[in-house]
Amino acid sequence: MTTTHGHVPALRPRRTDARLNRERLIAAAQEVFAEAGPEASLNEVARRAGVGPGTLYRHFPNRSALLTAVLRDRIETLCGLAETLLPSESADDALTQWLRAFLLHARVNQGLGGALMVEEPVALELDCHRLILDAAADLLAQAQQRGTARADLTADDLVHLVVGIALSTARSHDAEQPDRLLTLVLDATYGTPPQNG
Question: Which of 47, 10, 6 lies closest to 25, judged by CA?
Fold first, then answer.
């Protein structure tokens, strides 16, 4: 019994080290993938995280597992931002700020999402899409309840519009174009729906 208790404290630092290594690997992978795309060198990811390749592969047995972790981390950050913005005094400002962050996310993560769609089951894509859709729905519903956003708009509409902007401007040489297009979407979000006839 004493022997078992003697081993417990020794395990805790290893768990902490493992968690920190995992966090460092995800942070390094975000940087490396942002610079070189989803096919970037995994050895470079390990080097920047300050660990050996063996440590990387213990946490992430293949490229797909690392891409998934990076994408999930970014989506969790995006959804965390939505939760932080929900209590904002201005529902319009909260929705606007989140949609701008989502546009940046969609533009930065296109390559990761595309690489995962090739390698991973569709379940991951659906899970990530659901998290983003829920975050957008909460912020949009708040703006609609306060009467500022059009009632006929859905969260799915907004998500598709922002993803459309990200895809259509991926190779644009006009750095301001994504923001201009999002401003048009925001104008329509807070405008009144056109009258029939």
Answer: 47
